[in-house]
């Protein structure tokens, strides 16, 4: 007797992506990713499911890394560039915490797992986003992975974990000292403008490329997806209060000093020229 398998074929207009953030129970953001043929009904259902789960939902385009991870990539790469320029692990963590992030980048990498962090970093560098994603050295992470330092889950990453206590690992400290190519004597402010500069610049590039629907999605995505300081109300509100022209001239200075990865995108330049605010 022939057996019949009934395969359920999903109508293309009903296909949609939903990108949750790790750890899922505590991360409040959901990225919903329709494709060109997804119908409005499917979009509505996906957004409703997310909202019922208590998530803040934003709709984004199906590009490598979607929106939030695409912004985190230059953030993480800049951390490796800062390590090369002599910034200590402690300085990077404390300066980002003082800026208002819930955790610093070193703690973030440990919590997510260095293997996952490195995968995001290298995957996006192969996605042909060019110079925007360059300017660091991600072998900094792969070298740690090769030693089995994966972060909290392996008991050791940038920090060593004993129960609830964590201390910066002396081995990782020595490893990062060996990685220094030139010690620029960086201060907290230097670390902040380089990390936040690239982070915020990438969000404006995503807006320019239509990766998220609008400014509000852009602001919500970084606040709820990365912990961008809520009191700054997102990268675009931050740019408006900081002054777009001031931000652009800061980025131009950084580009002259460190390379084209800091160059502001056209949208930023246009806003600076016309003195136009984002909101």
The helix/strand order is: EEHEHHHHHEEHHHHHH
What structural class do you assign from the helix and strand content? Answer: mainly alpha
- Round the Cα radius of gyration to an integer and report it: 20 Å
State the separation between the terminal residues, measured CA to CA.
67 Å
Report strand order across the widest sheet.
Answer: 1-2-3
Overall average residue pLDDT: 91
Question: Strand count, sense and closure of the main sheet?
Answer: 3 strands, mixed
Sum up the overall morphology in one term. globular
What is the top-level CATH class of the largest domain?
Mainly Alpha
Q: Remind me, CATH topology of the largest domain?
A: N-(1-d-carboxylethyl)-l-norvaline Dehydrogenase, domain 2
Any guess at the CATH architecture of the largest domain? Orthogonal Bundle
Strand content: 5-15%
How many individual helices? Answer: 12
How much helix is in the residues?
A: 40-55%
Poorly predicted runs of 5 or more residues = none
Supply the number of structural domains. Answer: 3
What's the β-strand tally?
A: 5
Describe, in plain words, how this protein is organized in 3D.
By secondary structure, the chain is mainly alpha-helical. The chain has 3 domains: 12-59, no CATH class; 68-179, N-(1-d-carboxylethyl)-l-norvaline Dehydrogenase, domain 2 (Orthogonal Bundle); 195-274, N-(1-d-carboxylethyl)-l-norvaline Dehydrogenase, domain 2 (Orthogonal Bundle), CATH 1.10.1040. Helices cover 52% and strands 8% of the residues. The chain contains 12 helices and 5 strands. The protein has helices at residues 40-52, 68-84, 89-99, 105-112, 114-125, 139-146, 170-179, 188-208, 215-226, 235-242, 244-258, 266-274; strands at 16-20, 29-34, 56-59, 159-162, 165-168. A 3-stranded mixed β-sheet has the order 1-2-3, with helices on both faces. A hairpin with an 8-residue loop joins strand 1 (16-20) and strand 2. 41% of the residues are buried. The mean pLDDT is 91.
């Amino acid at each position: 007797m022939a057996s019949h398998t009934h395969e359920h074929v999903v109508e293309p207009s009903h296909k949609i992506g939903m990108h949750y953030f790790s750890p899922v129970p505590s991360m409040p953001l959901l990225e919903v990713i329709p494709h060109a043929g997804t119908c409005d009904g499917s979009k509505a259902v996906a957004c409703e499911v997310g909202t019922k789960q208590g998530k803040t939902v934003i709709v984004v385009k199906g590009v490598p890394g979607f929106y939030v991870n695409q912004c985190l990539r230059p953030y993480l790469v800049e951390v490796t560039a800062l390590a090369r320029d002599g910034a200590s692990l402690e300085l990077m963590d404390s300066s980002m915490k003082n800026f208002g992030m819930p955790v610093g980048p070193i703690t973030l990498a440990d919590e997510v797992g260095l293997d996952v962090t490195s995968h995001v970093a290298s995957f996006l560098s192969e996605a042909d986003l060019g110079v925007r994603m360059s300017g660091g050295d991600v072998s900094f992470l792969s070298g740690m992975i090769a030693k089995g330092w994966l972060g909290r889950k392996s008991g050791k990453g940038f920090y060593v974990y004993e129960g609830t206590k964590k201390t910066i690992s002396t081995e990782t400290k020595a490893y990062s000292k060996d990685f220094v190519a030139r010690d620029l004597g960086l201060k907290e402010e230097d670390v902040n403008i380089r990390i936040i500069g690239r982070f915020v610049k990438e969000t404006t590039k995503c807006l320019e490329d239509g990766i998220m629907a609008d400014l509000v999605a852009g602001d919500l995505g970084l606040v709820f997806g990365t912990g961008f300081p809520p009191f700054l109300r997102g990268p675009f509100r931050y740019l408006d209060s900081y002054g777009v022209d001031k931000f652009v001239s800061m980025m131009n200075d950084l580009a002259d000093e460190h390379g084209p990865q800091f160059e502001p995108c056209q949208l930023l330049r246009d806003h600076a020229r016309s003195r136009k605010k984002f909101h």
